[in-house]
């Protein structure tokens, strides 16, 4: 029996504080897998689709991604906080309808409608959040209910007020121009037209990232998503955090709704159904866990970019349109597999 | 905490009041809207009957709204109690027809987007002694189902009209934009365009429930294939997205569309839209109810076993001023 006396490791450092290489730390970030996926998909389309290589095409892809990505930022925060919002897709349309119909019916300045719509949107978010925290029913069910209710309200209210299922043209109402400048303008940089939604998207991602990583509220969001009872036990205001997150979602739904209104002048009441899943897909592809407590805002942005890029890349490549959704699904599945693989590798290397 | 919250609330309310008071618009809005007179006629003295209209229309779609308006106008005139219901899924639509049979209505108007799924239940209604007419979709199978008449457009014929018109304009490459996948009548329209268009034909599917996405997808396609010089959209709201897409992509393509709504006439007047192919949904709804009433009241049947066509009716710069005023009232 040979007695091997283990040489004790130098006790200077606690292993929990062990330094990992910068690369390993970077790879362990929630959004890294998605970033690699985005780069791979970008390269694929860059090779197979000649029109995709142009800067103007990238601008179109970024515009499309931003219309998903703005709401996806808040949906990701909410998912990190452990909740879902299935009403987000139609809430975008609700906001646009409220602003348009209010200004039209009262012949009020467009900005009045915009403000009224914001108040209504925040109220919807508050009701969602309040019902979830007070009834303790899963948010999936609560917001499923509000999803259908809003869908019905969108149609019924629009018909009640306008007599039609689409709102009237509001482009000649005072304040339309200035509101359009804020929500739906575009400008040209080096011959490429850039939509203002892209700038807003970057801003919202930056703010959300700052909140998550640098503020107490950010810690609270991770905590309530990880375990609501234990965070309540250490004094985190769980209910307020969750209600706040639902209101953040409805705020960005309102923003996207304003974009839709000012980009198209009229709003059809049936729009937006199905988009709630695109927001959730963007967050999940971007590394958020469906169970909560893990994820990032940048990841959701990359997820939205992947979705927008895949959707338009297929068109730029001129692939058979009958197979569109098959390709889209395959690309998303590929991105998720790659994401999961990279995260496992990063975790194993700890 | 509470005090500051109350103050905040008061400030928000005050701001709201100030904004509302000073926030009136000088132009547009309800005040500028003209009193639009609807279609109205007297009222029949026949006994009140109940007619069910069961369609595959998606709730909140402009087109189906106009069908309903036509049906309501006829119902008012004919002393009819109209029950409208709809479901885009054919299984659910069949159930709705069954529930109309169960409630023993005096007549049923149906759309037939998916004949094999709907014909059995339609035959059941006829067997129960309820007269049935078909509208909008089902031109090829209405005779087989045993319904009295069919009021609608021939989608292929409408597509062919669009293709012919685009060919006459000397265009070389047409893009057909389909806003929902797997709907027979939409595919028929695009195939009709293909049949008569003399140049190259391409189709694309877009997400009709998301305008920005629809716009970017069309813009991407125009970029992918710059030879496209004419676009045909299959629904009126989709034409508005296509107009933006053309501007975005810097394409020189021109545009035509199927169907009609209040936003379409100004676009034809401004030249952003070359034409709109209307199938007169108002007429479909109106005739459905009116013909059932005539059958009940006087035993009349329209069409002689052949489809009664409500379209294609082509609206362009020549006749847009005449049709436009009805569209503004929401009935065309």
UniProtKB/TrEMBL annotation, chain A:
GO terms for cellular component: plasma membrane. It is found in: Cell membrane. Its main location: membrane. Keywords: Cell inner membrane, Cell membrane, Membrane, Sugar transport, Transmembrane, Transmembrane helix, Transport. The keyword Membrane applies. It is a multi-pass membrane protein. It comes from the Bacteria. Signal peptide: none annotated. It holds the Pfam family BPD_transp_2. GO terms for molecular function: transmembrane transporter activity. The chain crosses the membrane at residues 26-49, 61-79, 110-133, 140-157, 192-213, 243-264, 270-290, 323-342. PANTHER family: ABC TRANSPORTER PERMEASE PROTEIN YPHD-RELATED-RELATED (PTHR32196), XYLOSE TRANSPORT SYSTEM PERMEASE PROTEIN XYLH (PTHR32196:SF32). Part of the binding-protein-dependent transport system for D-xylose. Probably responsible for the translocation of the substrate across the membrane. This is Xylose transport system permease protein XylH.
TrEMBL record, chain B:
Pfam families: Peripla_BP_4 (PF13407). Its main location: other. Residues 51-295 form the Periplasmic binding protein domain. It is found in: Cell envelope. PROSITE patterns: PROKAR_LIPOPROTEIN (PS51257). Coiled coil: none annotated. The keyword Membrane does not apply. InterPro entries: Bact_Solute-Bind_Prot2, Peripla_BP_I, SBP_2_dom. GO terms for cellular component: outer membrane-bounded periplasmic space. Gene3D superfamilies: 3.40.50.2300. One of its GO terms (molecular function) is carbohydrate binding. Residues 1-21 form the signal peptide. Keywords: Signal, Sugar transport, Transport. Belongs to the bacterial solute-binding protein 2 family. This is Simple sugar transport system substrate-binding protein. It comes from Kribbella caucasensis.
């Amino acid at each position: 029996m040979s007695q091997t006396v283990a040489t004790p490791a130098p006790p200077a450092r606690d292993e929990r504080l062990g330094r990992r290489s910068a690369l390993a730390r970077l790879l362990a970030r929630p959004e890294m897998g998605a970033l690699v996926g985005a780069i791979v998909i970008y390269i694929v389309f860059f090779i197979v689709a000649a029109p995709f290589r142009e800067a103007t095409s990238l601008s179109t892809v970024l515009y499309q991604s931003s219309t998903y990505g703005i709401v996806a930022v808040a949906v990701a925060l909410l998912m990190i906080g452990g909740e879902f919002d299935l009403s987000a897709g139609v809430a975008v349309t609700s906001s646009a309808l409220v602003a348009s119909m209010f200004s039209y019916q009262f012949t009020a300045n467009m900005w009045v409608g915009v403000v009224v719509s914001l108040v209504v949107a925040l109220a919807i978010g508050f009701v969602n959040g309040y019902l979830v925290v007070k009834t303790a029913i899963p948010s999936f069910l609560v917001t499923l209910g509000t999803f259908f209710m809003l869908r019905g309200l969108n149609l019924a209210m629009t018909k009640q007020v306008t007599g039609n299922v689409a709102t009237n043209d509001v482009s000649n109402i005072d304040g339309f121009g200035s509101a359009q400048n804020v929500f739906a303008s575009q400008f040209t940089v080096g011959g490429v037209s850039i939509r203002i939604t892209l700038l807003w998207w970057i801003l919202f991602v930056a703010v959300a990232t700052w909140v998550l990583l640098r503020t107490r509220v950010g810690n609270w969001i991770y905590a309530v998503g990880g375990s609501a009872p234990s965070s309540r036990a250490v004094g985190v205001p769980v209910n307020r955090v969750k209600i706040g997150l639902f209101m953040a979602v409805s705020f960005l739904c309102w923003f996207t709704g304003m974009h839709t209104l000012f980009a198209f002048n009229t709003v059809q009441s049936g729009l937006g159904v199905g988009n709630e899943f695109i927001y959730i897909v963007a967050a999940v592809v971007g590394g958020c866990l469906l169970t909560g407590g893990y994820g990032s805002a940048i990841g959701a942005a990359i997820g939205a970019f992947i979705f927008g890029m895949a959707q338009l890349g297929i068109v730029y490549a001129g692939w058979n349109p009958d197979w569109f959704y098959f390709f889209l699904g395959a690309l998303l599945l590929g991105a998720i597999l790659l994401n999961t693989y990279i995260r496992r590798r990063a975790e194993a290397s700890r | 905490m509470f005090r500051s919250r109350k103050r905040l609330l008061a400030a928000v309310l005050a701001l709201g009041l100030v904004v509302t008071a000073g926030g009136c618009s000088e132009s547009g809005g309800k005040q500028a809207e003209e009193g639009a007179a609807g279609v109205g006629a007297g009222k029949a003295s026949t006994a009140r009957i109940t007619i069910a209209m069961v369609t595959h229309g998606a709730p909140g779609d402009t087109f189906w709204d106009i069908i309903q308006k036509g049906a309501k106008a006829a119902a008012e005139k004919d002393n009819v109690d109209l029950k409208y219901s709809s479901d885009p899924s054919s299984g659910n639509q069949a159930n709705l027809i069954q529930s109309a049979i169960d409630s023993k209505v005096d007549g049923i108007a149906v759309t037939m987007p998916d004949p094999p799924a709907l014909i059995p239940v339609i035959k059941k209604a006829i067997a129960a002694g309820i007269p049935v007419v078909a509208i909008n979709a089902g031109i090829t199978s209405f005779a087989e189902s045993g319904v009295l008449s069919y009021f609608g457009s021939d989608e292929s014929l409408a597509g062919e009209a669009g293709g012919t018109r685009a060919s006459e304009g000397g265009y070389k490459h047409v893009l057909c934009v389909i806003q929902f996948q797997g709907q027979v009548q939409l595919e028929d329209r695009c195939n009709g365009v293909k049949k008569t268009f003399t140049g190259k034909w391409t189709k694309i599917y877009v997400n009709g429930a998301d305008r920005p996405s629809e716009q970017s997808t069309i813009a991407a396609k125009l970029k992918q294939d710059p030879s496209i010089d004419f676009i045909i959209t299959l629904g009126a709201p989709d034409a508005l997205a296509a107009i933006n897409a053309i501007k975005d992509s810097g394409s020189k393509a021109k545009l035509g569309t199927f169907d009609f709504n209040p936003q379409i006439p100004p676009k034809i007047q401004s030249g952003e839209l070359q034409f709109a192919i209307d199938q007169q949904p108002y007429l479909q709804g109106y005739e459905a109810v009116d013909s059932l009433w005539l059958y009940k009241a006087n035993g009349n049947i329209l069409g002689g076993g052949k489809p009664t066509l409500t379209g294609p009716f082509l609206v362009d710069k020549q006749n847009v001023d005449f049709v436009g005023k009805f569209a503004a009232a929401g009935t065309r």
